[in-house]
Structure formats: structure tokens, C-alpha cells
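Pipeline run #58 for the internal structure catalog. This entry was flagged by the ingest filter as a single-chain record with no existing model, so it goes straight to prediction. Upstream metadata was stripped on purpose; only the residue string is passed forward. Reviewer on rotation: M.T. Logging verbosity set to normal.
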Amino acid sequence: MDEGTDTSSSARRLLADLLGSVEGAMTKTVVSVSSAMPASEALAFLYRNGVGGAPVVEHERVVGVITISDLQSPHPYAHETGPFLRPHKGGSQWQVTDLMTKTAITAFPDEPLVDAVVRMTRERVDRLPVVDRDGRPIGIVAREDVVRVLARASARQEAPTEPPRPVLLPD
């Protein structure tokens, strides 16, 4: 085995041990939306719940992901007013299904967090719905969750050790 590969896999194992699993980092309360929900309603719902995005769920399965950015700027080619009016199919009301990312990149609760972080970076996403083996949402892991785990792990590693204090013994 190449020494560089050995070092890389050792570092990955160390990170996996240090950071733990996706389940230990994920937010267990899942805020999700339906694909049939009007986009304006979904946007208000995400703001109300204080999240930047959510899994799109149909028949209890994750079928996509929608973000506030997706909902705030519908397709650039669609003009709903003016001389170049091009309403999307179904009228002037956008639905989540029209704007969502249809391929959901997901994580499993028992996988190493480091693997999920690598996938988030590779796919350029800020959050991964966490699903059970049947594709049902059971949590979400976002960049903020990863930062929280890193801070916790760092605090454990840097636990201050105070020098022993002198003790006065009774005579």
C-alpha cells in the first residue's frame, strides 16, 4: 500500500472516531414540505421554522430538497408579468415540485459523519436529509450541525488541565 494512502486512511479513521456518526450530529426534528405545496406557502413555512431548506416528502419518502434560495428566485426563464409573459405549466402559482432539487442527496444515521461531510462538499449542498433504510426522513444534518460537533470535539481535546493546587494539611 502507498504510504500517502495509508496516511490518508489513518487520518480518515481518526476523524471518523473523533466526529462520530451522522446520528450524533443530526437534528432529529425534521421540517419537511410536500411537493404540491405552493412555493409562497413553503417559503413562509421555512422562515417560520427558522431553517434554510427542507426535504420534500411524498408518501413518507424523501423525493427532493427545497431551499429558501430556490423559493425566492423561481426559474430565470419564467416571466410572470410584462411583455414576455411565460407562465409555467399549471398557471401563475409555483409549487415546490417546480423549484425543488429532484435528486435528494441523503445520509444514513449509522454512517460516519466524516463521510457525510465529504459528500456535502462534493455535491455542494449545505444539508443532507437523514433517512432510514426505507427512505423515510428521520433527521437532517446541516453545516451548522457539523460545526457544533467540531466545536464539541475540539473542546474535549483541549480540556484545560489545571496544575494541582497546594493543599494545607491540618497540624
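catalog note: The radius of gyration is 23 Å.
catalog note: The chain is about 40% helix and 15% strand.
status: ready for reviewer M.T.
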